[in-house]
Design a protein that fits this description.
Shape: globular
Distance between the termini: 58 Å
Protein name: ATP-dependent DNA ligase
GO molecular function: ligase activity
Domain DNA ligase D polymerase: 28-281
Keywords: Ligase
Pfam families: LigD_Prim-Pol
Helix content: 25-40%
Number of helices: 7
């Protein structure tokens, strides 16, 4: 019998709570739900009013993975959705994770949360810039940190303040809060920045995705600023061998990184980090921190 829980007055069916989703660590679906409940406050702040895409992995990272933008079948009628303009489907909608009941319903599907750089109120008008730093083997997150420090200083020269987080996979994400700006303009600026990084750091950075260019270098992926793209949200779990998290970092941690293991954070690591440091990504939710593109 599927247990029913009541969250803020909403009845939610929770299934397979003892199912092991991450065999390497024995992390169960119940622990996934507990993790998301524990980090709900900062996670909800960062995905507030942002249409969400889900990467679902109901049988764990070694099972079937499928990415969905549309509300899944069986979505409760109390779950909020928002129109999302798409060229292939002008009537498309996506889920908004507006509260704890919706978060727990979505977490029960076993998901990564991915969001746009704009809110539902202003489609394709970005309030965040994102740079995804992806290492090509044998490069690791250590090389990503070196590239991130250059990008931090370059963004600062344009009056933009960057905040780092792990991707939860191999690399780093840099985010900068923006005054509302058309996504196309943010994309053009991000591409120009990635090209400049490649010119200044030719032995370290590439700005094109071609695999032949990437061994031993850091691909600065600027494309996720496009209005249609989404990026893993802060604090989301990732579908990896272990329950890794896309974890906000301090710049001191980036500067000190000497080994890839230095910046691997699992679900159990995040509550103590929040208790000690607070939400290191909090400035991204503060309109007063937003900068203007040059």
């Amino acid at each position: 019998m599927t247990p029913i829980t009541v969250v803020e007055g909403r009845r939610i069916a929770l299934s397979n709570l003892h199912k092991v989703l991450y065999p390497e660590t024995g992390f169960t679906k119940g622990e996934v739900l507990h993790y998301y409940a524990t980090v709900a406050e900062p996670l909800l702040a960062h995905i507030h009013n942002r249409p969400v895409s889900f990467l679902r992995y109901p049988d764990g990272p070694d099972g079937q993975l499928f990415f969905t933008k549309n509300p899944p079948p069986g979505t409760p009628d109390w779950v909020k959705t928002s129109p999302v303009p798409r060229s292939e489907d002008p009537s498309a909608e996506q889920v908004l994770i507006a509260d704890m009941p919706t978060l727990m319903w979505a977490a029960n599907l076993v998901v990564e949360f991915h969001v746009h750089q704009w809110t539902a109120d202003s489609p394709a008008i970005a309030d965040r810039l994102i740079l995804d730093l992806d290492p090509g083997a044998p490069a690791t997150i250590v090389e990503c940190c070196a590239a991130a420090l250059w990008l931090r200083d370059r963004l600062a020269a344009d009056g933009l303040h960057a905040y780092p987080k792990t991707s939860g996979a191999k690399g780093l994400h840099l985010s900068a809060p923006l005054e509302p700006t058309p996504s196309a303009r943010v994309s053009a600026y991000a591409k120009k920045l990635a090209q400049e990084a490649e010119r200044e750091l030719p032995g370290l950075v590439v700005h094109r995705m071609a695999k032949a260019l990437r061994p031993g270098k850091v691909f600065v992926d600027h494309s996720q600023n496009a209005a249609a793209k989404t990026t893993a949200a802060p604090y989301t779990l990732r579908a990896r061998a272990r329950p890794t998290v896309s974890a906000p970092l301090s710049w001191a941690e980036v500067e000190a990184c000497a080994n890839p293991s230095d910046l691997v954070f699992l679900a159990d690591d995040i509550p103590p980090r929040l208790a000690r440091d607070g939400d290191l990504f909090a400035p991204l939710t503060d309109p007063e921190q937003a900068g203007a593109l040059p």
